[in-house]
Every structure is written in structure tokens, then in C-alpha cells.
Amino acid sequence: MTAAVDELRRGLPDVDLVPAPGDVTTQEGARAAMAALDSVDILVNNLGVFGTQDPLEIDDDEWRRYFEVNVLSAVRLIREALPGMKERGWGRVVNIASDSAVVTPAEMIHYGVSKTSLLAVSRGFAKDAAGTGVTVNSVIAGPTHTGGVDDFVYQLVSKDLPWEQAQREFMRLHRPQSLIQRLIEPEEIANMVTYLSSPLASATTGGALRVDGGYVDAILP
């Protein structure tokens, strides 16, 4: 936590950063994290786990773990932050979902189901916040270049390939629907989150907005 805050301070020297530690996969941890803050105007839920597994070998405990981390962590933080936002008449909640929410991957059904649930969570809380000046949205992120995804890619293509070639091969074999034919950079997801968190998105709520590189083959999610 301290290392992360120090790194952010180097890039944002004029910003007041407050660490808010807490295991948000538990109710107590979520409350502890929120208690470190005076108030929250913008909440971005980006915690998630993923991994490949034979669908018939995913046991109940693993299903529960995915739901606790990928769904209930967001629910807990929204429950803590939303009342204050509604009272103040302004706020933004953005939940980071995935193309897997609408294109369920055969190699990680449990992940896809959890992200589908997150879309419903967003829509439901947007209705709860109706007319208050608070918006709640999801971002459907496509295949994105993160450290975890590097490992995931190399599970599915040859580990002997250089990274640029490996990601192209991964997209060709496993994500051929992508219209940009490359992994999305995290900054490209952040651009959508920035928009949804701003006053410019005042009429956008209850939505599932795509930053998927054209991966989802549909006009609407």
C-alpha cells in the first residue's frame, strides 16, 4: 500500500493521496477502507480475479471466491459510498466489467458469470440512485494488456515467442473477433473511466459502455 501511494505521488506531486487499506472481499474490510476517507465522490471498482479452468472442475469454493471478489466487493463499496453521494446530490460509480460478461469464455465460465452479474449490479444501483445526480455505469473492457494477461496469454500460446508476436498469435487464435487485432492498453480503458467520472457524463447512467476494441460482435451489449 505504501509503495503504491509513493509511486503515485511521484507522478502526481500536487495531489493529496490517502491510503485506505482494507480487504474489500469482506464486509469488515470494505468498511475499514471507506472509514479512512471523509467522503467519496467517485468510486471505481476494479478489483477482480480471473484464470482458465475446466468448467467441470470448478468447485463450489472457487465459484464463491469469484463471486466474493468480482461481484460482492463492488456491492460492498457501493453500499458504503452511495448514501453519501445521494445526500450530496452528486457522485459517480464505475464498475469495471469485461467482454466476458456478454461473450462467456468456455475456458473461464466462472469469470464470465461474475462479470455478467456486475452488469446487473450496475444497472440496479443506477435505478436506486435515480434522480439524485449520481450515476452508476459499467465499462466493458476488452482483452487488455496487463501483467496478469501476459501470464494468461503465455498459457495459451508458445512461451518461446517474443511478447509482440505472442499477443498477435493469442488474438488470432483466441480473440479473432477483435477489430483492432491487438490487446488494449490500460490507459485506453482509463479514458472511458475518466469520461464517466466527469460532469460531461451527467446523462449517462445505468449503462454498459464498451472499450473492447470491437471484440463484442453486436451493436448493443
The amount of beta strand, in percent, is 5-15%
- Would you identify the regions where 5 or more consecutive residues have pLDDT less than 50? none
CA distance, first residue to last residue: 35 Å
User: H/E order of the elements?
Assistant: HHEHEHEHHHE
The gist of it:
By secondary structure, the chain is α/β, with parallel strands linked by helices.
How would the blueprint of this fold be written?
Blueprint: H1 2-11, H2 27-35, E1 42-45, H3 60-88, E2 91-98, H4 109-128, E3 134-141, H5 147-156, H6 163-174, H7 186-196, E4 208-211
Parallel strand pairs: 1-2, 2-3, 3-4
Helix pairs in contact: 2-3, 3-4, 5-6
What does this structure look like?
- There is one protein chain.
- The protein is an alpha/beta fold.
- The chain is 46% helix and 11% strand.
- It has 7 helices and 4 strands; from the N terminus they run ααβαβαβαααβ.
- Strands 1-2-3-4 form a 4-stranded parallel β-sheet, sandwiched between helices.
- Helix 2 runs parallel beside helix 3 and helix 3 packs parallel to helix 4.
